[in-house]
């Protein structure tokens, strides 16, 4: 009887030891719930919900300061292309005291595995913040709420571009700051431009663009632009919003666009920057940025005009295709080597 009890006790102790050992393996097993949660936490990039701060400008300013530059990604892919990362790297590195907020519209999270270059940039650029943004919340209460919600359909060919147009105006109306597209190469510190507070930029002698602009919160002229967009919006017209910008300038100030650009400062209410300051290479010439001929001529031209940024024109970038980051000596690749070295270093074969 004693032998049987002793054997039973040994068996029970053995089973308890085995269960303890198995639970240890489960805790360490990559398939366990605890490990899965840790992996999931590191598989997405850190973001904040910008939508929740749209009606609380004082809280936004206390978090990010007075000088903020917004950028937008509205494709809903959750992926930032290498050339876009290059643009962000150049801008952030030359402006370490300015917070750059890159907002992804209508997404809940940004996956790290899809954005290795962006993940590396975040590690080296503490002034770059990622945000998610509900586009409906962003335009709510603004004049562009109606065209965004009722005229811009999901099957619209220009939905990405027009959504971006609506969002940049709404962000500046509600929070104030500066907006810049992701197809700009920054060459200088932008403090002198952002300190203008209320400004538009030209991309030719006769045209104002909306790819780089800045306004104080609730600026009355920006509201006029928003109203003009609402009344004139055509979902089938790609530059419909740009047309409204130009029309608003002419209607409010009773001058031509050529005269507005010439004046620079209109009635101490609005600055209009000449194209050579932020967009020295016009769209008609943009293909030359991606080709090797006459690179030295363009470098001298940029230097002489003291340009702060270069508009690289997304449509032109797509047409010119991929470039060899090692052997190509086009102006764009040379600029990238100097201003976004981390991004271009990730381009193994093509950039």
Query: Kindly, what is the distance between the CA atoms of the first and last residues, rounded to a whole number of angstroms?
Result: 81 Å
Give the percentage of residues in beta strands: 5-15%
CATH class: Alpha Beta
Structural class: alpha/beta
Query: What do the pLDDT scores average to?
Result: 89
Biggest sheet features: 9 strands, mixed
In the CATH hierarchy, the architecture is: Alpha-Beta Complex
Total E-strand runs: 11
What is the gyration radius calculated from CA atoms?
Answer: 26 Å
Global geometry: globular
Describe the strand arrangement of the main beta sheet, using strand numbers.
Answer: 1-4-3-2-5-8-7-10-9
Number of domains: 1
| SSE series | HHEHEHEHEHHHEEHEEHHHEEHHEHHH
Helix percent reads 40-55%
CATH topology: Spore Coat Polysaccharide Biosynthesis Protein SpsA, Chain A
Low-pLDDT residue spans: 4-10, 12-41
Please outline what is shown here.
With 351 residues, this protein is of the alpha/beta class. The chain has one domain (48-345): Spore Coat Polysaccharide Biosynthesis Protein SpsA, Chain A (Alpha-Beta Complex), CATH 3.90.550.10.
Task: Describe it.
With 351 residues, the chain is α/β, with parallel strands linked by helices. The chain has a single domain (48-345), classed as Alpha-Beta Complex (Spore Coat Polysaccharide Biosynthesis Protein SpsA, Chain A). It is 48% helix and 15% strand. It contains 17 helices and 11 strands. Strands 1-4-3-2-5-8-7-10-9 form a 9-stranded mixed β-sheet, with helices on both faces. A two-stranded antiparallel ribbon has the order 6-11. A hairpin with a 2-residue loop joins strand 7 (199-204) and strand 8 (207-215). The N and C termini lie far apart (81 Å). Residues 4-10 and 12-41 have low confidence and may be disordered.
């Amino acid at each position: 009887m004693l032998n049987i009890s002793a054997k039973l006790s040994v068996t029970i102790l053995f089973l308890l030891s085995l269960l303890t050992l198995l639970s240890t393996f489960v805790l360490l097993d990559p398939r366990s719930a605890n490990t899965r949660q840790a992996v999931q936490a590191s598989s997405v990039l850190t973001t904040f919900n910008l939508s929740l701060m749209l009606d609380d400008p004082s809280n936004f300013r206390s978090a990010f300061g007075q000088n903020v530059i917004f950028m937008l990604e509205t494709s809903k892919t959750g992926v930032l292309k290498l050339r876009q990362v290059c643009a962000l790297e150049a801008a952030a590195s030359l402006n370490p005291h300015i917070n750059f907020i890159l907002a992804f519209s209508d997404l809940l999270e940004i996956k790290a595995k899809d954005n290795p270059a962006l993940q590396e940039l975040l590690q080296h650029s503490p002034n770059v913040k990622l945000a998610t943004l509900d586009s409906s919340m962003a335009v709510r209460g603004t004049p562009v709420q109606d065209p965004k919600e009722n005229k811009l359909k999901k099957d619209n060919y220009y939905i990405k571009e027009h959504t971006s147009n609506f969002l940049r105006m709404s962000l500046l109306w509600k929070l104030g700051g500066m907006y810049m597209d992701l197809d700009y190469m920054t060459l200088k510190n932008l403090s002198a431009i952002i300190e203008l507070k209320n400004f538009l930029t030209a991309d030719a002698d006769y045209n104002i663009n909306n790819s780089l602009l800045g306004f104080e919160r609730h600026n009355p002229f920006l509201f006029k632009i928003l109203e003009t967009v609402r009344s004139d919006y055509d979902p089938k017209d790609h530059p419909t919003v740009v047309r409204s910008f130009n029309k608003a300038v002419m209607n409010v100030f009773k001058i031509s666009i050529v005269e507005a650009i010439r004046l620079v400062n209109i009635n101490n209410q609005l600055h209009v920057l000449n194209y050579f300051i932020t967009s020295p290479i016009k769209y008609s010439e943009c293909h030359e940025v991606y080709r090797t001929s006459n690179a030295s001529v363009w470098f001298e031209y940029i230097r002489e005009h003291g340009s702060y940024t270069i508009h690289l024109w997304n449509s032109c970038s797509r047409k010119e295709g991929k470039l060899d980051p090692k052997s190509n000596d086009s102006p764009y690749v040379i600029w990238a080597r100097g201003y976004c070295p981390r991004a271009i270093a990730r381009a193994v074969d093509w950039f």
